[in-house]
Amino acid sequence: MSTVIEFNDISKLYRLGLVSTRTLSHDLNRWWATNVMGKEDPYLTIGSVNDRSKAAESEYVWALRNIDFKVEQGDVVGIIGKNGAGKSTLLKILSKITAPTTGTIKAKGRIGSLLEVGTGFHPEMTGRENIYLNGAILGMTKPEIAKKIDEIVEFSGCAMYIDTPVKRYSSGMRVRLGFAVAAHLDPEILVVDEVLAVGDAEFQKKAIGKMQDVSKGEGRTVLFVSHNMTSVKALCKRGVILKDGMLVDDGEIDTIVSHYLRGDNAAANYKTWDQPEISNKGFELLEIGIRKKGGDYQDVIRMDQEMELVIRYRLKEAKDPFWITLHMKNEQGNKIFSFTGAGRCYDRHHEAGEYQQVCTIPANFLNWGNYAIDFMAIQKSNNIEALANEGDIISFTVANKQVAIGGFMGKEPGDVTPRFDFVEEKLK
Amino acid sequence: MSQNNQENWTTVIKPRNKLFEVNLKEIWDYRDLLMLFVKRDIITSYKQTILGPLWWIIQPAMTVIMYMVVFGGIAGIPTDGIPQPLFYLSGVCMWQYFSTCLGSTSGTFTGNAGLFGKVYFPRLIMPLEKVISSLVRFGIQLFLFVIVYVYFATQGVAPTPNWYLLLFPLLVVMLAGLALGFGILISSMTTKYRDLSILFSFILHLWMYATPIVYPLSQVKGKTAAGFDLYTLMHYNPVTPVLEAFKYGALGAGEFIGWGWLAYSFGFMLVLLALGILIFNKVQRSFMDTV
């Protein structure tokens, strides 16, 4: 094992806002300070941490800050993080598309980057011509491409259209052709950004398989960025988490992915109050949360595991009848179903006191993805009255189950994936 | 990490390059890409047109006819005793090559931002490719020039070329070098501030009139404007000596511009190229953040 990539203290500063006359004044100021006065760049010291949710305090922001890690020969490293965490910036610096503000990267061997497949395709040229052009853009020489062209055409599955201008291709075919070229690039270091997000299930399988071959069989080094934790887990041995431009975690992939998902969950899937904030007419919500059954709120919830929703509340006076209603919402905020707490609505009498309800959601019921729950506490006296009505009171992430290499890693359509009983009989 | 593998890094990415670090070997490694880009440009420039490359001949032909009407006919500017079509065509071919190269290389960064943002290859490939692919078009136009020349020769009015015509390859290199130098300089300077590209598009237009294309340089002799001797002043336009040398060599028009002025043009080109590459190199590292 030897180190093939070394990130030494990589930082990248971006300027916010528009290029305007103030840009010119900053440029002149910077030039004066660095070139004439021989001082340090005055704007390097004022960049702020890249937290998008807060209003910018400074005109400059660190997209990456002091990234420092090493990649060994044959490592397959998954770089994970939320949108804007700096993943793509890091890959762009490694692919020499943009320069770092400070720090150096040292690498051994040819770096092939797949930031987007089909880069430089010209719609008027045929598939074959574009293979040559695209291959050359990615750094292959003409003889290299000529040697592999049959393989590339076969892998792309576009043999029939190979002498047709690319503008007549479907978007899927373009992607396949682009990936086929990239997959045959054979660099010592492969940098991949989100390319597996495109294409149908069959193609994804093919693409992941190819990347597996590249990393396992041929001992190449792969840096892989994806939001699809399932494919990251399947492909990578090691993971690093970027957060707000900083490297916050580095280690074995399973641990890293669960840290990451836990980080997603921790804040949102469990709430408890010492001083009840949701309180109305003698009703006080004390605690609400969802977790893996029998587990901890910090644990990752996997779709093939049972999960339990826990609600604890206090009634300061008797309520008759009183019940709880919940709405399950998907990532888009659409309500996918509603469900009601313990007991039939109208015949549930509650004494004053503290109560806890636990609802078990069966395994393999919710598809993997992000969900949120709306909470309502309702009583009926003269008319029906909501004592509490809290939208998105908790939200949580359901992770995909383990998928074997070559299995489908995409998401099946739909928010629920119930396992209904099917009975099959052989009739003839 | 063992000690020995510290030495053999093949790629080192640093915030800033050395001032004059042009990786010629890298450009050589990407020569296939250069040629494929050239091929792409030629194949695609007239795809789905009926006349195809014929347009490359129609354009200068129409321009020459226009010049004959406006400058030869209406303004009555003499052409050193050379048949008007030949005189104008020689200037138009050379100038069009220069202005096409300059126009296309000056948009290197802004025009290729999409591609440059996705993948790395030596950025200089792009302007080089433009200079080479324009050469094909230039060749076809020269072919037109030869045909017109032969026609006038059969009519017995063609001027005789002289040995200075052997300078032609050098003159083309100088035109290409000047265009490339200016082009990449402008391209680098327009990534952040677009003002220059607006200024540039009409400067190129005015520049043509400051170059002896629609009139012979001999006509300027003795003329002054605002106290300046226009004849001498025009020699400082680095394109003038190139064009004049070509016209003298091919058509025997006017008189030889002199080695001194050719050397001046050549020197101008070298300085311009050096400056252009220097700034281009500096800008290419981070232009993605500003473009």
Count the DSSP helices of chain A: 8
State Rg of chain B.
22 Å
Q: Over the alpha carbons, how many angstroms does the gyration radius of chain A reach?
A: 27 Å
Q: Give the domain tally of chain A.
A: 2
What portion of residues of chain B is helical?
Answer: 55-70%
DSSP strand content of chain B: under 5%
Strand order of the largest sheet of chain B: 2-3
**Taking strands numbered 1, 2, ... along the chain, how are they ordered across the largest sheet of chain A?**
6-7-8-4-9-10
Most extensive interface, chain pair and sizes? A-B, 47 and 39 residues
Largest sheet of chain A: 6 strands, mixed
Low-confidence stretches of chain A: none
CATH topology of the largest domain in chain A: Rossmann fold
Which second-level CATH architecture of the largest domain in chain A applies?
3-Layer(aba) Sandwich
Structural class of chain A: alpha/beta
Distance between the termini of chain B: 39 Å
Oligomer: heterodimer
Order of helices and strands of chain B: EHHHHHHHHHEEHHH
Distinct helical segment count of chain B: 12
Brief sketch in words of this structure:
The complex is a heterodimer of chains A (428) and B (291). Chain A is α/β, with parallel strands linked by helices and 428 residues long.
